[in-house]
Amino acid sequence: MRFLIRRLGFFVLTLWAALTINFAIPHLLPGSPVTAMMARYHGHLTGKSLEAVETALGINTHASLLSQYFTYLGNCATLNFGTSVQEFPASVTSIVGAAIPWTLGLVGVTTVLAFLLGTGIGALAAWKRGSRLDSFLPPLFVVGTGLPYFWVAIVLIMVFADINPWLPSAFGSDSSYVQGWNSDFIGSVLQHAILPAVSILITSVGVWVLTMRNTMVTTLAEDYIRMARAKGLSGRRIMIDYAARNSILPNLTGFAMSLGFVVSGAVLVEYVFDYPGVGFQLVQAVNNEDFPVMQCLFLVITVAVLVSVLLADIATALLDPRTRNAR
After folding, report:
1. From residue 125, how far is each of 138, 160, 218 by CA, in Å?
2. 80 DSSP assignment
3. What share of the chain is helix, strand, coil (3-state, %, to 5)?
4. Nearest-5° angle of CA 124, CA 195, CA 202?
5. Are residues 164 and 307 in the same domain?
6. Can you give the pLDDT at residue 151?
7. What was the pLDDT predicted at 284?
8. Are residue 142 and residue 14 in the same domain, yes or no?
9. What is the C-alpha to C-alpha distance for residues 7 and 22, in angstroms, rounded to an integer?
10. Which of 112, 150, 287, 324 is spaced 20 to 30 Å from 7 by Cα?
């Protein structure tokens, strides 16, 4: 219980710091949502028109900074992030809320698959250390980690969409289908997700393969592994219950960080494929100086990472009781 309370305390403190920084950065940067909106009207907003825009965007420049800060905290608690400059008068919550499912569906599922696939291959390579399998698989997958996301995405588009028009090269689905839980739309979504998903898998599996292999090689040299062999346990049980289970613990934090950053999306991949996820939305917000959307996205990404790390700490404590007693 003390471990859980301590972790929750760190979570709350870090979350408060992230909220404060997220509030401070737009106030320190030159420009504002109002000036960005004025640029759209070529600077012709003055007087009551300017005040109307400030009200519509949820900005009160006449209030003190402290008052704005507490208003901001209250808005965050009620998920009221204001109005988008880029897609005025749409709310920021609706824009970000529409982008998150696309990113979770693509990057989230792909990240889990990459972790499971890479961990399994890494464990198998470590168990067969020195064999042809160990000499072939890890180097093959590790090569992919050195390839940029966008380069792999462009090559896949050229091969499977341009030269051989087998798969779509852009967007999340075919615009001719009505969005909903129908077979045509779901099939279109899956078809459009193939190329971006493959590009993410190619560039991310190698990290988990190499990490799991190196950790498990060290674990296989431990005394309790020798004891398990001496007791006559089967090789499969030693590999899974003794070696792999203890080797995977250090990877949980890294996996949690990866899950946290899933919300941010693979920005370059989503941008190359015009995929309507959080990463693409973030690029659009930066290009259009859409401060409210940027502020909301940064906060969502931060909260996702903090929650993922907290869950990883709890999972590690459940799997390894020694961490609960660490000071």
Report:
1. 7, 31, 13
2. -
3. 75, 0, 25
4. 30
5. yes
6. 83
7. 82
8. no
9. 22
10. 112
Tokens standing for residue 7? 């972790």
Q: Is residue 314 part of a domain?
A: yes
Q: What angle do CA 42, 48, 50 make, to 5 degrees?
A: 40
166 inside domain: yes
Containing domain of residue 131, as a range?
Answer: 92-325
Q: What pLDDT was estimated at residue 184? A: 78
**In this structure, what token pair is assigned to residue 279?**
């990463």
Exposed (0-12), middle (13-18) or buried (19+): which is 302, by Cβ within 10 Å?
Answer: buried
Q: Does residue 64 share a domain with residue 182?
A: no
Among candidate residues 202, 316, 307, 219, the one with its CA nearest the CA of residue 259 = 307
pTM of the model: 0.72
Q: Is 80 exceeded by the pLDDT of residue 3? A: no
- 271-296 pLDDT tens trace: 888 888 888 888 888 777 777 888 88
- The domain tally of the chain equals 2
The answer to whether residue 237 is domain-embedded is: yes
The answer on pLDDT for 321 being more than 70 is: no
Q: Which amino acid is at 279?
A: G
Residue 84 lies in a domain: no
- One domain, residues 247 and 102: yes
Residues forming beta bridges with residue 91, ordered by sequence position: 83
Q: How far apart are CA 27 and CA 219, in angstroms?
A: 50
